[in-house]
Amino acid sequence: MKTTIAKLSEHVGEEVTIGAWLRNKRSSGKIAFLQLRDGTGFVQGVVVKSDVPEEVFQTAKNMTQETSLYVTGKVVEDSRSSFGYEIQVSNVEVIHAATDYPITPKEHGTEFLMDNRHLWLRSQKQHAVMKIRNEIIRATYEYFHENGYTKIDPPILTGSSAEGTTELFHTKYFEEEAYLSQSGQLYMEAAAMAFNKVFSFGPTFRAEKSKTRRHLIEFWMIEPEMAFVEHAESLEIQENYISHLVASVLKNCKLDLEILGRDTAKLAKVTAPFPRITYDKAIELLKEKGFDDIEWGEDFGAPHETAIAESFDKPVFITHYPAAIKAFYMKPDPNREDVVLCADLIAPEGYGEIIGGSQRIDDLELMEKRYEEHNLTSDAYNWYLELRKYGSVPHSGFGLGLERTVAWLSGVEHVRETIPFPRLLNRLYP
């Protein structure tokens, strides 16, 4: 019976055949241990010389790393393995013998591994990270579909920017100027006026010349937008969504988290509600922690976010940032016009901001004033203004950075390991 490693638990005591690649092997004169992978998981195959024809044992013993093969054998339980099963091999059939595979079991430098990203993805830890990424995506669709959201796909090529033009990739769209999208938010606001609750999931691009462990040039965003939802309710939606993601990863990625050595006890604490502090209180907290140079009106950098997060064992919302350092579309606090109804959600353990969101301006006159202040005179923005002209309603939304969320839940240090083929400041290959 042909099957996969992921389904071996369904075939204990049976003889099966899997297509696989040889990760590594060790052998003696009488037994060969084959470390196998097939894309769905990892398992050990045991070849006992006395139990198989001589040519089968010699084939198994002499195979090289990343050789592709068909393996036939009996599935047995193995309590010593974290996977729980192994294959007692009766036959191996080489499909393609690999030679001089560049990523050997020894230590390699980061640049070497990134140059060989197309092969590095085959490793057990990188595989685990991608499985966690996949689970976050699956759970995202589950959460929003179960809560009545419609998925809408905003364009990647746009004639306007969401938050300014300084960090955009410019391109020619025939005779017009165009940009690669840095956010689908403006379009999602239009969609919310048609469908009430919507979400998007797609690539975004920032031409930001940053080399930090938190930044990518191309990354993926989940961006919900909700009509008739104000700031406080939006925060509840965000914390329930994050709680759902964490619970799903803990439930469905146990082996992947174990492979990565993730401290799941910390993740188990991540349940709604999350703590909330205002920007004002965050400034006070930072000064107490020795950040004497931080002044009201300045944005927070990575060290500031990390210091704030250290005071909590869950993600923390920082709310009511100064209007001057936030985007033009954010609604001012009705009781205090110098701050806006917004929040950044800061992940624990130094992973920084994973969500940015706000209640949007719904008043036409105020939005026209913001257009003047931000010099948004281009006709490309007219359609966005009209959302306030024809049946405007209170509405809110947020954006979650997928790669930062993957980094946090999987416990990896750098976001370059959280996307299959990262685009960094000095990396466009492979």
Automatic annotation (TrEMBL):
Listed EC numbers: 6.1.1.22
Compartments, record wording: Cytoplasm
Top-tier EC class: ligase
Keywords: Aminoacyl-tRNA synthetase, ATP-binding, Cytoplasm, Ligase, Nucleotide-binding, Protein biosynthesis
Keyword match Mitochondrion: no
Reactions it catalyzes: tRNA(Asn) + L-asparagine + ATP = L-asparaginyl-tRNA(Asn) + AMP + diphosphate + H(+)
Domain of life assignment: Bacteria
Record Pfam families: tRNA-synt_2, tRNA_anti-codon
Domain Aminoacyl-transfer RNA synthetases class-II family profile: residue ranges: 130-430
GO molecular function: asparagine-tRNA ligase activity
Gene3D superfamilies per UniProt: Bira Bifunctional Protein, Domain 2, Nucleic acid-binding proteins
Keyword Phosphoprotein: no
Coiled coil: none
Quaternary structure (record): Homodimer.
UniProt cross-references to PANTHER family, sorted A to Z: ASPARAGINE--TRNA LIGASE, MITOCHONDRIAL-RELATED, ASPARTYL/LYSYL-TRNA SYNTHETASE
Family, as annotated: Belongs to the class-II aminoacyl-tRNA synthetase family.
Protein name (record): Asparagine--tRNA ligase
Source organism of the structure: Terribacillus saccharophilus
Gene (name only): asnC
